[in-house]
Write a structure and sequence with these properties.
Number of strands: 38
Number of helices: 2
Largest sheet: 14 strands, mixed
Shape: globular
Radius of gyration: 23 Å
Strand content: 25-35%
Helix content: under 10%
Structural class: mainly beta
Length: 552
């Protein structure tokens, strides 16, 4: 279970962000619906009249037939409670009515609508297998916190009772689990790709023929610019390509207002293709990525701008409080499965700019690009950096220019601090000023000596570290976390007590950066700890349990 602090501090942030996105009074207004009070019910095994007015008389699914609800004509302002069952992929295209929202709510034993004929036997997972789409705006899909579960959490290859709504693109390597549009909220939802069985690919076959496989599916995707997207407290995993692919837009017409928080994102690139398969390939202004866990991700970077079209302007990225790590089972795939490029990070954790060196100064950055309080651990692929290439905090290519302000502070690297090759740091490539300091590297291995940051303009790979950086090249194997690494839980990246940074504190930042992912106030103990987790929290949630990677 979550600690009470996690429930009371972090979860309300979801509500705050959603309200901020829509800022309207009528978005959540009730409307006359199936029961006359704005509630409709969907249950695959219902055997009543099929009019949606109660659990007994629930719709048995989506469609145009008898006893079905048509996803093209669902009623605005209504909450559709959905119970366990297999419902198939859907295109949700009900016409917009101003900003009024349609809500699809996963039914749980604790929360299942006001109908009095509910039975706890209806609880479970509503699974939509195939390629689903939202083609109109103002939808909220809420899988709800399930009693007895910790978040993020998952178990089993075919879904998980901790997420009462599960979108699963099980077999289409050319598409996605969810095609998205503007004004969409997804929370407490499991979103799965085609990679079940990776790296053995028992659900399909070994897809790497000269590493040009055709499995390039995504968890969520749009090929055009959208606005007001919220993805929170969800589990995105096992995609053939990138989990979040938002490659639409040119010039000033790119996506806007994108928030991703509290998600567990794991195993991209299970299609073993020759593409750049990150966790995020995204073009979005005013983007926040906070309090997420990214496990076993490879590619050009972990979060990159999509850069399909050049000559555009992008503003304001805030990436903070995240944990990025690879576990021991995943690292063991290299070099055995090195042809799949698993574990490889080419240019940095966050990477900006197209890699076409013949087109410099084509991607303009304005506003603020912030990367703070993140933990980056275990990307070494062995004892040197030759497989990882670069885990610098923010990398950039010659395409980048502009007057953006860059802030890179309080990040903690553990056994992962590589800068192998000529990969440029973002600092010095924009004219708005750069603060890169108070970062820490805790190697635990004297052979990993290439970690560094730089401060000021004109930074290059040979520049010295920032004045408050803290680089520990050799210490005990457990390092600052007090447990044998690499860990597979959030708790495994909590700092030891006493505070290992008490004499090397991080920089103090104001709200909203003064909470960690468990809701603990940073610096309340007198020291602003580096990395994603501040000492003083409760019991963190565990990792999903179905992420083991084995080689046969």
């Amino acid at each position: 279970m979550h600690s009470p602090k996690f429930r009371t501090i972090i979860f309300p942030a979801v509500i705050i962000v959603v309200i901020a996105l829509y800022t309207v009074q009528d978005s959540f207004a009730s409307a006359a619906g199936c029961d006359g009070n704005g509630n409709c019910y969907i249950y695959a095994a219902a055997n009543g009249s099929g009019n949606g007015s109660s659990w007994t008389n629930a719709y048995t699914g989506f469609g145009t037939g008898t006893g079905k609800v048509n996803p093209a004509s669902m009623t605005r302002g209504v909450t559709y409670w959905i119970a366990a069952g297999a419902y198939g992929a859907q295109t949700f295209s009900s016409a917009a009515s101003g900003t009024t929202v349609i809500t699809i709510e996963g039914a749980t034993t604790a929360s299942h609508g006001p109908a009095s004929d509910w039975s706890d036997s209806y609880a479970g997972t509503a699974t939509l297998i195939g390629d689903s789409y939202f083609t109109t705006g103002y939808w909220t899909v809420n899988g709800q916190p399930v009693p007895g579960c910790s978040y993020p959490h998952g178990s089993g290859d075919s879904g998980d009772a901790c997420y009462s709504i599960h979108f699963w693109n099980k077999s289409d390597g050319a598409n996605q689990a969810i095609g998205i549009t503007s004004n969409l909220t997804l929370e407490y939802v499991e979103i799965e790709g085609t990679g079940e069985g990776f790296p053995n690919n028992s659900s399909t076959y070994d897809r790497c023929t000269s590493c040009y496989g055709n499995w390039n599916d995504y968890a969520i995707e749009t090929s055009f610019a959208i606005s007001n997207l919220y993805v929170g407290y969800s589990y995105l995993h096992h995609t053939g390509n990138t989990q979040i692919q938002m490659n639409g837009g040119t010039g000033s017409s790119i996506s806007n207002n994108c928030t991703f928080e509290g998600n567990w994102i794991s195993y991209n690139h299970t299609g073993q293709n020759a593409n750049h398969d990150e966790a995020f390939a995204i073009l979005c202004n005013n983007m926040t990525v906070r309090y997420n866990v990214l496990q076993d991700i490879c590619g050009s970077g972990l979060i990159v701008d999509a850069s399909a079209d050049e000559n555009f302007t992008m503003s304001n990225w805030y990436v903070y409080g995240n944990i990025f790590f690879s576990d021991a089972a995943y690292l063991a795939l290299w070099p055995t499965l090195s042809k799949y490029a698993v574990g490889t990070i080419d240019q940095g954790v966050l990477v900006l700019g197209d890699d076409n060196v013949d087109n410099p100064n084509t991607e303009q950055l304005t506003g603020t690009f912030l990367f703070t309080d993140n933990t980056i651990a275990n990307f070494t692929n062995g004892t040197d950096c030759s497989g990882t290439y670069s885990t610098q905090d923010v990398g950039a290519t010659p395409a980048i220019y502009g007057a953006a302000t860059v802030i890179i502070e309080n990040n903690l690297h553990y056994a992962t601090s590589c800068q192998y090759g000529n990969y440029n740091p973002l600092c010095g490539m924009t004219s708005g000023g750069c603060t890169e300091d108070y970062n820490a590297s805790w190697q635990g291995d004297s052979t990993l000596t290439q970690w560094q940051t730089c401060s000021g303009s004109g930074c290059g790979n040979s520049d010295t570290a920032g004045p408050h950086d803290y680089n520990v090249s050799t210490l005990t194997p457990t390092g600052p976390f007090g447990t044998t690494q690499p860990a597979t839980t959030i708790a495994g990246y909590g700092l030891t007590t006493p505070d290992p940074f008490s004499s090397h504190a991080g920089a103090t930042l104001g709200s909203p950066y003064n909470l960690d992912m468990l809701g603990v106030t940073r610096g309340a103990n007198g020291t602003w700890d580096r990395g994603a987790l501040q000492i003083g929290g409760g019991d963190p949630p565990p990792a999903p349990t179905n992420l083991a990677a084995t080689v046969h």
